[in-house]
Design goal:
This protein is an alpha/beta fold and about 250 residues long. The two termini are about 20 Å apart. A six-stranded parallel beta sheet has the order 3-2-1-7-8-9, sandwiched between helices. Helix 8 packs parallel to helix 9.
Length: about 250
């Protein structure tokens, strides 16, 4: 199931970058907000996770994010998250670049560096002065809106909404990590949607060995050298056991 070349490359010299998506958090019960999971009071995520929706009705958007935060707060890191933590000390360097905003990688370990492409459910940003604060409390009560303690303007979820560009600094950091990787793993995401696709391609062009882990064999990244068709919570712990078994 696990490619022999991947096991062989994951040694004490390996620089590993792991790109993760919704699939790695599925076993934790985090909704994907696609298909039927995307409905909330007859709204879809694409209706609410936009700058236009927030400008029109910030209370509605915050009510939805409060509901999301309550759901995710009850979730726990699963064996796939923990396997990456276990793998980190076996290689020279391991960094995670995630499309997820749930914070489960950080809850699995504060030691493994995580670069958030799309922001975090647990951070708020002022729409005026840009001040960011971390907040893990329940969402504001219906009709209440969080405000910046510095300037008094509205706070918004510090996530990348549909129609917004990713932060240039975050993109630059992700590109730098990717270009230095000797092993690049695409876990729980198809890796065919940009910018994810660009990272896998960049890693391959720079000489990295690229492997995708996804339950959908048809979602294999075009840049991947190998593919593991198995749920992340099964394949990632198995990978760690295989690597550990080859150590002296």
């Amino acid at each position: 199931m696990i490619p022999e070349e991947l096991i062989a490359r994951l040694d004490e010299r390996a620089c590993v970058v792991v790109l993760t998506g919704a699939g790695i958090s599925a076993a934790s019960g985090v909704p994907t907000f696609r298909g039927t999971d995307g409905l909330w009071k007859n709204y879809r995520a694409t209706d609410l996770a936009t700058p236009e929706a927030f400008a029109q009705d910030p209370a509605l958007v915050w009510e939805w994010y409060g509901w999301r935060r309550d759901l995710v707060r009850a979730c726990q890191p699963n064996p796939a998250h923990r396997a990456l933590v276990d793998l980190a000390p076996m290689v020279a360097r391991l960094a995670i670049v995630t499309q997820n905003v749930d914070g489960l990688h950080e809850r699995a370990s504060a030691e493994v560096p995580v670069l958030r492409l799309h922001g975090s459910l647990w951070q708020m940003r002022c729409v005026a002065c840009g001040r960011e604060i971390e907040n893990h409390e329940p969402g504001p009560a219906p009709g209440e809106l969080p405000r910046c303690t510095s300037c008094g303007e509205l706070l918004r979820p510090s996530v990348v909404w549909f129609g917004e560009a990713l932060d240039d600094w975050v993109l630059g950091q992700a590109g730098q990590l990717t270009s230095e990787a000797t092993v690049f793993m695409v876990v729980g995401t198809s890796g065919v949607v940009y910018p994810a696709a660009s990272f896998a391609a960049l890693a391959a062009q720079a000489g990295a060995y690229v492997v995708s882990f996804n339950v959908d064999d048809g979602a294999r990244s075009d840049s991947a050298h190998d593919h593991v068709n198995s749920p992340c919570e099964v394949s990632m712990p198995l990978l760690v056991r295989e690597v550990a078994a080859r150590r002296p």
